[in-house]
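User: Sequence recovery, please. Input:
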């Protein structure tokens, strides 16, 4: 049980301190591509700051040996590093640290600074070094992560580089147990918008056999609530249904679940209740994956006829294989064509067709595609080249779509309770959307 909880901890940093996990960094450095120190901060004083001079030679040595990894060790310390935009973000540590959490923190530094400066690169480092030093002082204290939420940090560390003491007061969220939400938030109209968004990744061959498929889902929220509300979300979770004797009810077995830091993980582990005090505004509550067989929601049949290398004809049939009460919006069917094709002519029963020679493809756009329908499109091209195209290596047809009020997995929001001590009434709005991910259909 402890091991499983620690894996979930990797998703959010604020829990590191709460669970007393060992994660300590002696110092943080930001280096340019040649290994020159742009910014550094010593937190513990137990490692000589000059040890960073050994980082780049050691990196190059390991690279030449073909043994380059994210960790480099010397007799003085261990270097953990990541690379972004030709910058190295390096942590040094002397202790037996939880190295996975060190890397999560390094990526969190990049995320926060990108929120501040849009692009984290050498120029933005040099232009904003005062703010960066303030951020490094707030992000970590004596080697341990502290406030890592950029929304909270932006309340009292501004890009004008104001010193902390110049601010009227530090937000309560910094010293509060709920570090991701400020106190005193007020709205005239209290509302919660919850979107269940599923992306379908699929690869099928020309015979209709699905070679690979999965569903990647996320629950995204926009919260406009006063005070410090507690929300409780109930899903048709298979583990919950089986434990409560409702195994025969329609449920979904979620895999690779990752939560926002606001979710009480212990509560979820005990009774599968998703309980949390939400951040203000927009955030992603959770993500999940289902490695399952998915029937193609939109199936494409293609017949391609070449005529003596002078012209080529396409007959494309599109069929929606979902329930009639649902409708796919903004459907785009992208069909690859030969690089030397010209003089396009199209005929379709619905929508419009456009030739994009820079992509060597035609795009069939259908604004509204109801379930259980079938449409036809014909295309004709001239082929000035006399060379025969290779049969192997044909690019697949790609399909883009969005189906509102529909989920492929069958996940359902059973309830969304909003509890706040003042007792106000709040309106929850729930929306379901299924869209394409990497959705490809091979041709003959």
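Assistant: Recovered sequence (444 residues):
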């Amino acid at each position: 049980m402890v091991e499983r909880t620690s894996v979930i901890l990797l998703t959010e940093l604020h829990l590191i301190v709460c669970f007393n996990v060992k994660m300590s960094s002696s110092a943080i450095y930001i280096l340019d591509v040649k290994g020159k120190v742009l910014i550094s901060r010593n937190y513990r004083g137990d490692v000589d700051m000059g040890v960073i001079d050994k980082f780049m030679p050691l990196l190059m040595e390991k690279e030449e040996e073909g043994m380059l990894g994210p960790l480099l060790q010397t007799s003085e310390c261990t270097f953990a590093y990541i690379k972004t935009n030709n910058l190295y973000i390096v942590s040094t540590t002397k202790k037996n640290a939880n190295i996975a959490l060190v890397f999560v923190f390094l990526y969190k530094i990049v995320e926060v600074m990108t929120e501040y400066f849009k692009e984290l690169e050498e120029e933005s480092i040099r232009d904003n070094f005062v703010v960066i030093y303030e951020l490094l002082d707030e992000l970590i204290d004596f080697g341990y992560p502290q406030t890592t939420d950029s929304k909270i940090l932006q309340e009292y560390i501004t890009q004008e580089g104001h010193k902390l003491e110049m601010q009227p007061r530090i937000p309560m969220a910094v010293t509060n147990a709920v570090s991701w939400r400020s106190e005193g938030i007020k709205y005239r109209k209290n509302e919660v918008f919850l979107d269940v968004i599923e992306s379908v990744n699929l690869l099928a061959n020309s015979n209709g056999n699905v070679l690979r498929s999965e569903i990647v889902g996320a629950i995204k929220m926009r919260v406009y609530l006063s005070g410090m509300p507690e929300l409780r979300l109930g899903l048709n979770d298979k583990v919950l249904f089986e434990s409560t004797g409702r195994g025969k009810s329609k449920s979904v077995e979620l895999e690779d679940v990752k939560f926002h830091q606001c979710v009480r993980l212990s509560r979820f582990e005990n009774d599968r209740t998703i309980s949390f005090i939400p951040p203000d505004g927009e955030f992603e509550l959770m993500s999940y994956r289902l490695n399952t067989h998915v029937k193609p929601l939109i199936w494409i049949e293609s017949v391609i006829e070449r005529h003596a290398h002078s012209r080529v004809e396409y007959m494309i049939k599109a069929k929606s294989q979902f329930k009639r009460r649902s409708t796919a919006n903004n459907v785009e069917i992208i069909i690859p064509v030969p690089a030397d094709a010209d003089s396009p002519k199209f005929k379709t029963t619905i929508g419009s067709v456009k030739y994009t020679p820079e992509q060597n493809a035609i795009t069939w756009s259908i604004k509204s595609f109801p379930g259980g329908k079938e449409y036809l499109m014909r295309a004709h091209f001239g082929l000035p080249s006399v060379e025969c195209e290779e049969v192997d290596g044909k690019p697949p047809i790609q399909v883009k779509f969005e189906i509102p009020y529909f989920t492929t997995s069958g996940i359902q929001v059973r309830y969304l309770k909003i509890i706040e001590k003042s007792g106000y009434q709040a309106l929850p709005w729930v929306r379901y959307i299924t869209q394409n991910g990497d959705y490809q259909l091979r041709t003959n």
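The CA atoms of residues 226 and 406 lie 31 Å apart.
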